Amino acid sequence: MLKKLLSFSLLIVLTYCLACTSVSKEIPKFLQGSFQDDYKIDYELTEKMFFQKPNTRFHILKWNIEEQYFIAKNDSLNPYDPNLYARIDWMKFEDMAPFTWGFCLSVYDATTADSAEIMSTVNRTTPKTGCNGYPFSRMKPSTQ
């Protein structure tokens, strides 16, 4: 009986602790939906998938809302770097209409999700060169 009581108590404590430490933030609405970049490439972004049309998919494993990036596994059928891991950083734009946000494919060929996450090369203060020396890809809502 004591063993069952201790097990139940431990379960309650662990559940409570996990609820206390987990950060629950929603994905910003401006990131979700259909988009087109400044090169006229179409995209879809959901909580679980970043899809660069017509055939490049990133399966999102983890969102870090506070630091503005997500970690994804490259689809096995992607033409480049299949089954490897990517870190995709984003930033919201001000005064750059019709573009509302931009992304940087910071890492696209990491062998693990953890190694993709620790590699950060973005500089959001200079979006024209802040993506590994290149500009962030600018995104606008798609009209399709």
Tell me the radius of gyration: 19 Å
N- to C-terminal distance: 63 Å
Shape: globular
The helix content is 10-25%
Ranges where pLDDT stays below 50 over 5 or more residues in a row are 4-24
Beta strand %: 35-45%
Count of discrete structural domains: 1
Strand order of the largest sheet: 1-2-3-4-5-6-7-8
What's the main sheet like? 8 strands, antiparallel, barrel
Averaging pLDDT over every residue, what do you get?
Answer: 86
Q: Kindly name the structural category.
A: alpha+beta
The count of helical stretches stands at: 2
Query: H/E series, N to C?
Result: HEEEEEEEHE
The total count of strands amounts to: 8
Compact overview of the structure:
The chain has 144 residues and is α+β, with helices and mostly antiparallel strands. Helix content is 18%, strand content 35%.
Q: What does this entry look like structurally?
A:
The protein is an alpha+beta fold. It has one domain. Helix content is 18%, strand content 35%. The protein is built from 2 helices and 8 strands, in the order αβββββββαβ. An 8-stranded antiparallel barrel has the order 1-2-3-4-5-6-7-8. It is globular and about 35 Å long. The relative contact order is 0.16.
